[in-house]
Amino acid sequence: MFESAELGHKVDKETYEREVPILREALLDAQYDLISQRGFQVVILVGGVDGAGRSECVQQLNAWLDPRHIETHGMGEMSDEERDRPPMWRFWRELPAKGKIGVFQGSWYSLPILHRVYGETSNAALAEAMERNVRFERMLSDEGALILKFWFHLSKAGQKKRLLALEKDPRTRWRVTERDWHHFKLYDRFARVCSQSLRVTGTAHAPWHIIEGADARYRELVFGRILLEAIRKRLDRPAPPVDTPAQPMAPAVDQLNLLRALDLTTSLPKAAYQQQLEAWQGRLNLLTRDKRFAKLSVACVFEGHDAAGKGGAIRRITGALDARRYQVIPIAAPSDEEKAQPYLWRFWRHIPRRGRLAMFDRSWYGRVLVERVEGFCAERDWRRAYREINEFEAQLVEHRVVLVKFWLSVSEEEQLKRFREREATGFKRYKITPDDWRNREKWPAYEQAVCDMVDKTSTEIAPWTLVPANDKYHARIQILKTLCERIEAGLRDRR
After folding, report:
1. pTM of this prediction?
2. What are the φ/ψ torsions at residue 252 (nearest 5 degrees)?
3. Considering the chain, what percentage of its residues have pLDDT values greater than 70?
4. Number of structural domains, the chain?
């Protein structure tokens, strides 16, 4: 895989000085066109062999472009804040917005490769990490991002020569560390692992560009030209919509579905409710104060029909908790900042730290519910969202996030009753909007979307809990009980 990057490529000084001004001007023109169009973001990954000129190329790129619109991230060891979240969280929050260029020096490839080279993980774990990277990049590409992956290579002899040269020069001696020489001793192992990783992750939508790093002028020109060509091509010929193959939804043969099968007559007397509320709130409080709770976090998703009681259920949970331990995240229409990012970005950034709870009042399921029904996104987007959501939730659960998902269901008649009560009560009037009335007219479409959502995203690791909510007392107790039981299971998990 690296043979062509060990041939001794060089560019003479005269050629370099002639070509660079032309390249710089063209790159700046492309950058300004990117800023003007704001149609996509550019995600650049820079990796490779120690001493092959990764840092120098990134620095040169920053010198060539307008630094106000390029974001460079050196992703080294994880901080305590980052270790409290799934590994991909640190990358999600640094993704560039549309119209921007983001450079990652150290990426979602770095740690899986290092862990395998050091013998800390197996080949199977490396393969799983690479498959996850491919799925992540596919999602970014489907969201419109232009992904460019560069690998700067040196032969074993070339790396030794480069390290010795840097070490000999007093101006660059500081750049060579014991870690660099340790990695040199592991060169052959690095070559095997990296070759395997690049081979399985070089895809049509996110290919690897392998550049020989021995000659500075050569690597900079090649790096700049590849970048320019890719951005210019996308600007001048925007990528067509990505068709996501998907099986058609199964047509209904009878009138039975998941929501209609719920027993909405289930109720709980007020006296019993008050007694059980106190008991379950106390139990929840004790669970969050258990010393083992510091090793996990909780994310609660609340979806449901309008006026189904999501807010009231959330308040019964927060009423049992220390305010320092939780956050309620109300999800509304995306802001301009959020529209400039991949869809899941605004949810990833709210993933709680260990020992904390996050309650999402509406959630990432909006894409397959309101966006699907109201036509706010293309069919190909909500169809692929099922796969992306399952991947997202798998990463949460793998990192010991207790994920609890509730759908609160009411009948059309009960919803109408609550709507009218809200309109008649001054301090509740803000809860009812024209959108609520309009959504009622699309009840069958929303019902079908909810059933499809549950069928495709209720997994063994992240199941849905369907809550009959015509009786608020019953619904609140079921939610508290389910949450406590799921946290208890998480505390018993010794991963």
Report:
1. 0.91
2. -75, 130
3. 97
4. 2
